[in-house]
Amino acid sequence: MKDKNNRLNLSLILPTYNESENIKKLTGKLSKSLSSLDYEVIIVDDDSPDLTWQIAQEIGNTNHRIKTIRRLDKKGLSSAVMAGMLQSKGDVIAVMDADMQHDESILPELSQQISTGKYDICIGSRGVAKGSYGEMSIVRKFASFFAKYLAYITLKTSVKDPMSGFFAISRTYYEKTKNKVNPAGFKILLEFIKRGDSPRISEVGYVFRKRIFGKTKLNTTITVEYLLALIDLRFGWLIPNRFVKFSLVGVSGSLVNFFCFVIAESLGFSVSIAVVIGAEFGMIWSYFLNNFFTFTPFTYHGSRFIKGLILFQFMSLFGITIQLSLVRLIITYWPFVTGSYMTLYFTYFTAVCFAAIVNYYMHAYYTWNRLGFILTRPIRSKESELKQ
């Protein structure tokens, strides 16, 4: 039932991508499981090629509780969840996957525990009583246990299933925490747990189901994003998560630079030409990874991809210039640094680190930001569609 302020009991957020074979079956199950509540289901789809969003909209035409947000410009599970929460109206906000591996029958219990006022977050957990990983493979079970252990030692959290994407939070806690959450990656639950002010947490057990339709989204990218999320939550006040990504890409770019230099030199090119070839391939490699990994909210596509590459190389010249200038400055005023390999290498390393910081901010604030989008003439932005 609605309260006197016309607010719903529950808003359920379903982030989707290529779940056309599951979405209709799931919404049917939700109608039965949530029949005792006044609720809404907000499906946030990242423009699925299999037209999940279209099927969801058709369901909404006959069921006023189903709303669909089709995101044309943005991607990512966590940001999809936050987009859905922004549109929600319930006193309790729940999140679950649309692949039917989460048990929708415990949603009323998750909602009830939040509604009592005793808890801020209630997690659908595979690690407590009545919960299990079901038919999950040994490899995935090991990965989940390892992820839980990492979360424990890194974040000092006692949550039994920190990798869960199935949980509910109170409207009050959401409003207090939403502006602190980093909507990147795939594990939004950890963000709400650690960004908030000592949330009161409970866990409700459920059996994780085997996926019947569609393909799992779990891959190397998700694993890397999880590790980076732990680093960000633990050390983000000191080192921005995006800078960690940028640095990792920089290291890999240096390796590509080196190997391409070796190959070019072995093919008979002069050292100078080999240096240029190595540097160019290193920058192309770094641009590609930064575009699709480091700065994902501002990814360049289509014709803008090449224009972004040109802008990236232009901005990178500042870092190279600063690096060379700093080394020359130190050698000029403190010539003793050239007296040994140790001091010379330390000087060079210092210059590289300083140039890396400058490069990061140049690219973060110009290449993959407003100026970059102006210079590369972005295609007219298509507004996300909210179908009531």
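(ticket continues) Second input and output from the same batch:
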Amino acid sequence: MTNIHWLGTGLSAIPGLKMLIENGHSVLVYNRTVEKAIKALSDVKGDYQVFVFSLQSLEENVAAGDIVVSMLPGNFHVPVAELCLSVNAHFVSSSYISDEMRALNDAAKEKNLCFVNEVGLDPGIDHSMSHALVDDYKNSPKFSANNEHSFLSYCGGLSDIPNDFCYKFSWSPLGVLKALMSTSVSIRNGDVYRVTKPWESVELYPLPMPWGEDEFEVYPNRDSLPFIDQYQMDDGLKIKQFVRGTLRYKGWKNAWGDIFSEVDTLDASIAEARLKEISDDLWDRYSYKDGEVDRVILTVELKVENDTEVVWHKQYLMDTRGNDNGSAMAQLVSCSVALAVEAVIGNEISSGVTAAPHQSKLVTRWLDQAEDISDHFVLIDHLN
């Protein structure tokens, strides 16, 4: 039997871990604090063992053909993947593919190993929605390389009830603060659009939510351009807009005004220390308390125009709140990871370093599960 080695039992890990155990898989769970992992799994019956995490303990237990799942901080992914290469084990994570991870592609292919990444929520479920929309459009009678294509994808982890800060933190705010200092690249009106200060590109974004809501604020993040190829939109299509970004409650830009001002003027010599101070203060004031519910909104939209006439326009919209099964974020991230593990076991994913699969069968499986978890999940055809 293939053993699954699940590394980390943090806030976004437990529902998917439980899913694999309850589905009858043999799972070895690793965490720095064994007691915490045992407590998190106290209501689960199945074949699992718990170990103190270290690369050494993992190496002692993992065997060829096993699958290692890294739910650890990003700096652990490559060392864990390199260990997998040395023992001929597969690797799965929800994180973006780094250059260092991508460099392992040839070695993984040579050994016929699957190193699957970007199979969480964002990235992950958003990829599945994107593949589904692009495939739907390309198979429609409206498909033409002469059309202009606008692609928008926004995801937000939100509090169920908006507060004065328009946000709550489920883990250290430091990562969010550092992301505010990262350049984003997207396409607007056919041109490459670079933003060094994301708060300067915040705009209102109306969402057609049948269950009631109005406008949110959105802004681009990271580099969107590589995903044009990943979503198979690079084959001669005219791109008018292509943006992957973050969604927040309306009023977020104003609520964070003082934070933006300080981040913008930080002296490099004290930036790290000051960001840590800000992070600690935000955690004290705006972290989730026991019993508070989170919310995740994800929307992916593809609009196609020909001579200013909209000829094809569909949009996925998902709205999920935490419940007794875990937070919305934890369920959507970790259960998607669990699906990827089972797809590797079923030999359904190609070898090498890959992102969320684009095959129709797997895309449908991912989206069906997301719909099962969500409170609301719709595909809107704006022209019908």
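Agent notes: The mean pLDDT is 94. The radius of gyration is 21 Å. Closing as not reproducible unless the customer responds.
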